[in-house]
Amino acid sequence: MNQPQQWNQGGMNPWDQQGAGCGCHSGFHQQQQQHHHHHHYHQDGITPVFLFTDGGNSRALMLHPDAQSYEPAVYSRYWNDGQLFCISQRETPQTPKPLYAYRLDKGNQQYNHFYTTNAAEIGVTRAGQVGNYGYRCLGILGYVGTQETAAQGHRRMIPIYRWYSGSLNQHLFDPDEGLGARLNQGYGAEGIMGYVYQC
Prior knowledge:
By secondary structure, this protein is mainly β. It has one domain. It has helices at 27-35, 72-75, 119-122, 147-150, 179-183; strands at residues 46-53, 59-62, 79-88, 97-107, 110-116, 136-144, 157-165, 170-174, 187-197. The strands form three sheets. A three-stranded antiparallel β-sheet has the order 2-1-3, with no helix packed on it. It has a three-stranded antiparallel β-sheet with strand order 5-4-6. It has a three-stranded antiparallel β-sheet with strand order 8-7-9. Strand 4 and strand 5 form a beta hairpin. It is globular and about 45 Å long.
């Protein structure tokens, strides 16, 4: 597997959850809760994930539509491109795997974000810790399903695909299976990262 360096994914997300059962803590959600007295959660614990882009190759996944106010020093150059999918904020039988979020500071206000369900890729799972390739853990964005668990339950789940571009040295994550090829930036498919809900 290619090392998870700069890839599109989304910036860190502000997550509210406290990494249930995985020893992870999300500083993002705690801080964002301070900024927002209202939440975008559904009653069943499922919340929208918004895609933020900076006009270049950097893409960040956020739980709030005005995430720039959450950490302006990082995200003031990003804008909201709309809802990408919805994700569970709870570990459930249908969504048993935590989706860890990481950010790499490349300097000059350039950032890369990385997401994975495999804690061994970056090697740290607690918010604030720095792991492989210099990525800092932002916490847990939410919980995702597997191919087996996605078929269970009453709510339909969709796959999130992952790509890697060697020329850009970054990853891309999106529910659109054809996005990597359409970008024409050398993205090679790395399979399905997990299953989430369609908003």
